[in-house]
Inverse folding.
């Protein structure tokens, strides 16, 4: 398995996309450090990047990569290698290279300028989001043979989780605003990895003071050991379940 | 000639008797107890307390005398007693250090409790670990200056207020420092008083808290890092000028909370990094002028229950939300402010923007109505909603706008 | 060696393989013939496990290949269109293949030498012509001394000299007693290379016998003639059954 991963990894590095991505993140982070000296503000601005850019880049890069390595997968399939190994190698190679790009791009400036606890959460949630969206993109890639269709599905996932779902949540809040909704929304949030990551990060920053009673309720929850366990468990499931389904489909797929 | 001589002698004698005598108290003096000295003292006398620690339980002062400490003698309440109770007229308490008063929720034990008194001066005293610091009840014409109060409580119920006034009038509170009490300065039924140059930091609840206290003036005070900021309630005729409201940060914190205030004046203040800069509800006829709102969460929460207020010539810079309200009716005038988010233009170069500015964010409105919606904060959806609302206002009040937005921030320092 | 029993494959409504049953024994060389879209490649891919059958059974050395992968150690496969990671150099590709099948200690680089591929080891795959690509595919298929060789259109796009080299190699392997399955449109090539003939039409095995037998049946001496006659006979038969 490590041999296969190494080859995919080299292939990914050769396309230079990962380098661009790393460079882009480095540049943005450095630029934010130049523009602002307030640590919390920088983390906050980066949060926008993490919530929008990281999932977007993850889904697009993953689907494009998957289809451009179709040949490689075909080649490997004729070899005495388990399908599962090939697929998981693809996942691990893509996910780890994207995570590395992210960790370097965002982490290095913070190491240079000094980091706080919220930065560690930022890095961890970014990595989780990468894993989740790479996972979702693999799922959309095995759902269809058509590359553009697959990118379409992957973008839909992204669009759904970063926009449509929130619209739905807002509608629920609006419709049931007379009821105590804290627990309901907590459940709803768990069904969207982007929201979950956003809330975890917001609660880390001192701007959570602006979130009033709801914020306090969430802070209580996510601040507790149970909450940390819950949120990381949910994010973990979000990464695991799509890739598991994708693996099952891939196992039965004709190539 | 004789008549004149007699007259002169009378004047000199009377002057001598007014001067009074000085009683010294100290471990090495003949009088070792303050209580003893007070018993000995005649009106107009001075008691000079030498440095040392005095554990005398509750000292009661009912004479018109001057009580002065030298090198800050310590009056220790041994965590049990109220150290000094005053019921007098024309007295001075100066240069003493009060520590470890008793605590308790039934009796409001204070370092200095002033009851039904007039014409007192409380100067240059220090307070450490006191339940209440200076407690005034039913008194008038009192001057409290340059005192330093410091306590370290962990919870609100464990501690009283720094400077506590109930039913007083004509009080001046100047240049005091209050730290770590429940409320820094507390006013209830206090009228015609002046609070100036005080520094109130890190108090559990409010840096300044006043209710039913009409016609008072607050100038040049600084309120930093208090649990819930400053609260002003059920009062009319208040002047708040050139105060600093800084970093009152927390989920229920305000720079300045105005509740049922009318005919008042808020001018030249600075609101920096508060969760809510100003929260006004049920307030009428207040003029907010030339204030700075910088880096607050919500700069201004103007509830729909407010009317006839004027918000003009203020600077709004780097706030998360500039202005939110909870209704669609706007009965206040908002004009000529500087808003750093303003994106309009000024073709005739008169420093006034040519298109009105709508300071309300749609999302801010939504959260005011449905607090749970705060969960969507900083999501892409909210960003889009705000943008869309700016272009075509649907739910933000149509007439809530600044028709004459300033193009440049005002410089109030000149 | 390879036993196929009642193999069916459907892509949606389209039936690509219809109850194909074959028994391919080692030491024999099979020519897999049929018009375009008749299901040859699907059959090959089914044997390789790349296409999952809708029903039916494929056994390799007596073992069901469903969800198996180890048996592919014994197969050298040359695809119809060689698709490779485009950014790889030929040398890297060869190294990678060797690396992935590390357990094979001695490799057969005869074809690499014969095609002089080592001269262009540093060329990237996307720069290669169709013919060179075929050479790479062929070299890789023979690299591991596999007892079974599956060659999908091996000579398509190759220049005459290379075709001869490849033919020689195939014949050599045949003599070594390997099981060889070749599909090709160029029937004259198959004439030399194969001993057995499987004709597939519309997913069904229409003919399965030795080439000798076919020639006798059709009274032709050359395979391409023989197959054409066979096809004509089948078409005639079909048109009659359709009219009925």
């Amino acid at each position: 398995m490590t041999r296969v991963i190494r080859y995919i990894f080299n292939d990914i590095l050769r396309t230079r996309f990962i380098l661009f991505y790393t460079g882009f993140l480095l540049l943005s982070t450095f630029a934010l450090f130049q523009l602002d000296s307030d640590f919390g503000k920088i983390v906050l601005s980066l949060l926008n990047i993490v919530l929008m850019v990281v999932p977007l880049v993850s889904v697009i890069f993953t689907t494009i990569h998957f289809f451009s390595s179709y040949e490689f997968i075909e080649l490997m399939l004729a070899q005495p290698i388990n399908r599962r190994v090939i697929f998981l190698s693809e996942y691990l190679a893509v996910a780890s290279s994207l995570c590395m790009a992210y960790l370097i791009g965002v982490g290095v400036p913070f190491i240079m300028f000094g980091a706080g606890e919220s930065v560690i959460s930022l890095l961890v949630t970014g990595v989780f989001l990468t894993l989740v969206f790479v996972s979702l993109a693999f799922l959309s890639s095995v759902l269809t043979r058509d590359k553009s269709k697959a990118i379409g599905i992957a973008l839909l996932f992204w669009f759904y989780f970063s926009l449509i779902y929130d619209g739905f949540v807002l509608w629920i809040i609006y419709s049931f605003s007379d009821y105590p909704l804290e627990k309901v929304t907590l459940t709803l949030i768990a069904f969207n990895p982007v929201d979950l990551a956003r809330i975890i990060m917001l609660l880390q920053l001192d701007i959570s003071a602006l979130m009033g009673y709801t914020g306090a309720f969430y802070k209580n929850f996510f601040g507790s050991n149970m909450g940390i366990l819950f949120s990381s468990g949910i994010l973990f499931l979000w990464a695991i379940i799509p890739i598991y389904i994708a693996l099952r489909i891939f196992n039965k797929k004709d190539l | 000639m004789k008549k004149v001589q007699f007259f002169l002698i009378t004047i000199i004698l009377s002057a001598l008797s007014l001067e009074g005598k000085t009683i010294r108290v100290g471990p090495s003096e003949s009088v070792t107890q303050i209580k003893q000295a007070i018993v000995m003292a005649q009106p107009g006398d001075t008691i000079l307390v030498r440095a040392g620690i005095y554990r005398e339980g509750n000292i009661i002062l009912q004479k018109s005398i001057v009580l002065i400490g030298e090198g800050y003698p310590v009056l220790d309440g041994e965590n049990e007693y109220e150290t000094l109770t005053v019921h007098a007229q024309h007295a001075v308490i100066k240069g003493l250090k009060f520590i470890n008063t008793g605590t308790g929720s039934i009796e409001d034990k204070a370092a200095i409790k002033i009851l039904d008194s007039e014409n007192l001066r409380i100067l240059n005293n220090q307070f450490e670990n006191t339940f209440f610091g200076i407690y005034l009840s039913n008194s008038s014409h009192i001057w409290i200056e340059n005192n330093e109060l410091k306590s370290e409580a962990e919870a609100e119920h464990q501690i009283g207020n720094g400077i506590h006034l109930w039913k007083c009038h004509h009080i001046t509170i100047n240049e005091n420092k209050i730290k770590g009490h429940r409320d820094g300065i507390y006013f209830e039924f206090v009228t015609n008083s002046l609070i100036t140059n005080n520094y109130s930091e890190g108090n559990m609840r409010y840096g300044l808290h006043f209710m039913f206290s009409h016609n008072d003036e607050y100038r040049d005070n600084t309120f930093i890092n208090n649990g819930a900021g400053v609260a002003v309630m059920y009062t009319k005729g208040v002047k708040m000028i050139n105060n600093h409201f800084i970093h009152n940060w927390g989920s229920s914190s305000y720079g300045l909370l105005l509740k049922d205030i009318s005919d008042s004046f808020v001018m030249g203040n600075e609101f920096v990094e508060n969760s809510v800069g100003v929260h006004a509800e049920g307030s009428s006829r207040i003029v907010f002028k030339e204030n700075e709102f910088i880096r607050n969460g919500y700069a201004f929460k103007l509830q729909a229950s407010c009317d006839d207020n004027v918000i003009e010539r203020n600077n709004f810079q780097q706030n998360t939300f500039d202005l939110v309200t909870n209704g669609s009716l706007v009965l206040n005038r908002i004009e000529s402010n500087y808003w750093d988010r303003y994106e309009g233009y000024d073709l005739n170069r008169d420093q006034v923007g040519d298109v009105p500015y709508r300071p309300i964010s749609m999302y801010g409105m939504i959260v005011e109505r449905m607090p749970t919606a705060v969960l969507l904060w900083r999501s892409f959806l909210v960003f889009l909603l705000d943008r869309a609302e700016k272009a075509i206002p649907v739910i933000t009040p149509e007439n809530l706008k600044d028709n004459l937005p300033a193009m440049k921030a005002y410089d109030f320092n000149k | 060696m390879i036993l196929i029993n009642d193999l069916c494959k459907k892509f949606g409504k389209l039936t690509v393989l219809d109850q194909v049953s074959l028994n391919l024994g080692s030491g024999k060389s099979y020519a897999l013939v049929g018009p375009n879209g008749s299901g040859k490649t699907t059959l090959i891919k089914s044997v390789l496990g790349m296409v999952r059958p809708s029903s039916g059974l494929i056994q390799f050395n007596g073992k069901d290949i469903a969800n198996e992968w180890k048996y592919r150690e014994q197969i050298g496969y040359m695809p119809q269109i060689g698709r490779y990671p485009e950014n790889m150099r030929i040398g890297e590709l060869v190294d990678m293949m060797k690396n992935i099948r590390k357990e094979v200690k001695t490799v057969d680089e005869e074809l690499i030498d014969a095609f002089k591929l080592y001269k262009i080891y540093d060329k990237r795959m996307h720069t290669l012509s169709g013919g060179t690509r075929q050479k790479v595919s062929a070299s890789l298929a023979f690299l591991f001394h596999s007892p079974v060789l599956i060659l999908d259109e091996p000579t398509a796009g190759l220049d005459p000299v290379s075709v001869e080299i490849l033919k020689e190699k195939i014949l050599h392997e045949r003599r070594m007693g390997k099981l060889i399955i070749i599909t090709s449109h160029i029937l004259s090539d198959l004439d030399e290379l194969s001993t057995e003939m499987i004709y597939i039409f519309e997913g069904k095995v229409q003919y399965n016998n030795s080439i000798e037998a076919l020639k006798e049946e059709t009274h032709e001496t050359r395979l391409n003639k023989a197959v054409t006659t066979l096809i004509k006979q089948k078409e005639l038969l079909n048109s009659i059954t359709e009219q009925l």
Chains B and C do not touch (no CB pair under 8 Å). The CA atoms of residues 52 and 73 of chain B lie 5 Å apart.
